[in-house]
Task: inverse folding
């Protein structure tokens, strides 16, 4: 009896020793424990969706830390290691990960899958390239989830039924979320349905839920916050008489503060675009971040001048 106990204790020790070999990696989880699939996603939103489908059958990690934006990220050696050790690397595609080449040069053997495939792209304002922020409409999340499910099932066929079931449940939750957004945002007056943030990232959301959208700049990897951009958006705000503007968790708020000060509107809250919120925050998952965004828009844009 005693001997079994000792052996059991030893194997526990070995298991925990194996699990701690990439502790130094930043962002995300502890890495692969040698069982199940190990998937790395380019940023936290995609990792959260992947976790919902993968469930217990593996580990999910991500590259861009929460709070940083995924356009111009500079990958570090531990990121190359993560991707190298992964069974697959999930990216958004649609012009998002401008640093992908550096990953490909340093982790050449890991397959890269663009999980936005199937989304109808909306171009950047005045350009012929897609705006990458398709995940910001829950209606597009279905494409992401289907692509994740198909890929995981191919890599782990024994888990296919579980992935399918997880995906169905998750899509059900997202449909409920979408209905909630539809219903909640219906209260906002027609002439106040205008979302203004620093980076004009809500095009897909705006199209699906009947808003207009604009930003100080088009995309984070472009020039940010020039006086021309700031003056232009102030004009838009005054012309449209929008009641409020918003800042993002991944963008320096000072530009929008300048805009708010000079146009006499209030910043009505922080929304999540290029990352989920920190663990324990009100936006720690994709579903929670989208719910928080919708609530923040409803709160800010339903204000009238009397208030
Ligand atoms: Zn962005």
Result:
């Amino acid at each position: 009896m005693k001997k079994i106990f000792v052996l059991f204790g030893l194997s526990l020790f070995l298991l925990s020793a194996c699990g701690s070999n990439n502790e130094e990696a930043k962002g995300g989880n502890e890495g692969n424990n040698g069982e199940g699939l190990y998937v790395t996603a380019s940023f936290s939103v995609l990792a959260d969706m992947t976790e919902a489908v993968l469930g217990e059958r593996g580990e999910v990690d991500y590259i861009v830390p929460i709070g940083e934006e995924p356009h111009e990220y500079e990958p570090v050696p531990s990121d190359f290691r993560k991707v190298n050790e992964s069974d697959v690397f999930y990216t958004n595609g649609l012009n998002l990960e401008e640093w992908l080449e550096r990953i490909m040069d340093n982790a050449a053997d890991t397959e890269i899958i663009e999980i936005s495939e199937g989304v109808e792209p909306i171009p950047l304002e005045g350009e012929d390239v897609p705006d990458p922020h398709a995940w910001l409409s829950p209606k597009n999340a279905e494409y992401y989830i289907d692509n994740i499910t198909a890929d995981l099932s191919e890599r782990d066929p024994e888990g296919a039924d579980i992935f399918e079931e997880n995906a169905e449940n998750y899509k059900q939750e997202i449909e409920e979320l979408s209905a909630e957004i539809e219903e909640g945002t219906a209260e906002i007056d027609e002439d106040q349905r205008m979302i203004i943030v620093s980076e004009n990232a809500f095009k897909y959301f705006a199209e699906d839920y009947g808003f207009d959208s604009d930003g100080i700049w088009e995309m984070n990897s472009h020039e940010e916050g020039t006086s021309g951009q700031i003056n232009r958006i102030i004009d838009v705000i005054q012309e449209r008489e929008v009641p409020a503007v918003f800042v993002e968790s991944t963008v320096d708020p000072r530009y929008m503060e300048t805009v708010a000060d000079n146009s006499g509107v209030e910043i009505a809250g922080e929304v999540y675009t290029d990352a989920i919120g920190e663990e324990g925050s009100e936006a720690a998952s994709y579903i929670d971040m989208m719910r928080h965004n919708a609530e923040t828009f409803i709160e800010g844009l339903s204000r009238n001048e009397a208030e």
In short: The mean pLDDT is 90. The first strand starts at residue 37 and ends at 43. DSSP finds ten helices and eight strands in the chain.
